[in-house]
Amino acid sequence: MARLEYRLYEEGGDFPLLYYYEQIERDEVALRFACDYLVKEGNVYEKTSCAIEESCYVIYVKPSEDEKVMSWEKPASGSRQGFTMELREFQEFATDYQLVHTYPITDSLDVMLYLAANYLYIDGQEWYRTSAEIDEDRETFVYYAVKSDPNA
């Protein structure tokens, strides 16, 4: 078990502690390292960098200037154990991102593989990753992507 800290990135600043997690599994730390954004307590933070210190893992974040918390419902989990990841269509200057697919995933390594993938395929359509986030408020991972150009 490890310790994970989210610290506020401030140019030339002291990097104040925002959030911390004691006794967190390393695979969950890796999942969080793979995300570009964190949604927590109604705020959106953009990852600037990650670090491994002697005593803990650290993710440096700053408040996102371009993103806002969406009013999406928490995905239904039923009685299933594991993780949920949504594929949402990214569109520049959009006020909402359409849900394309919801993945129920039971294994953290599978979540990591999805988050690290540049492309996902749904019903024969190729989707190119633009970013990923962990939305703690809704307890889900979100994979943002654009449709790949079929003529490219």
Describe this structure in words.
The chain is mainly β. It is built from 2 helices and 10 strands; from the N terminus they run E-E-H-E-E-E-E-E-H-E-E-E. Strands 1, 2, 3, 4, 5, 6, 7, 8, 9 and 10 form a 10-stranded mixed sheet that branches. A hairpin with an 8-residue loop joins strand 1 and strand 2. Helix 1 runs parallel beside helix 2. It is globular and about 45 Å long. It starts with a strand and ends in a 5-residue tail after the last strand. The model has no long low-confidence stretch (mean pLDDT 91).
Described by strand count, sense and barrel closure, the largest sheet is:
10 strands, mixed
Global Rg: 16 Å
What is the molecular shape? globular
Distance from N terminus to C terminus (CA atoms, Å) equals: 46 Å
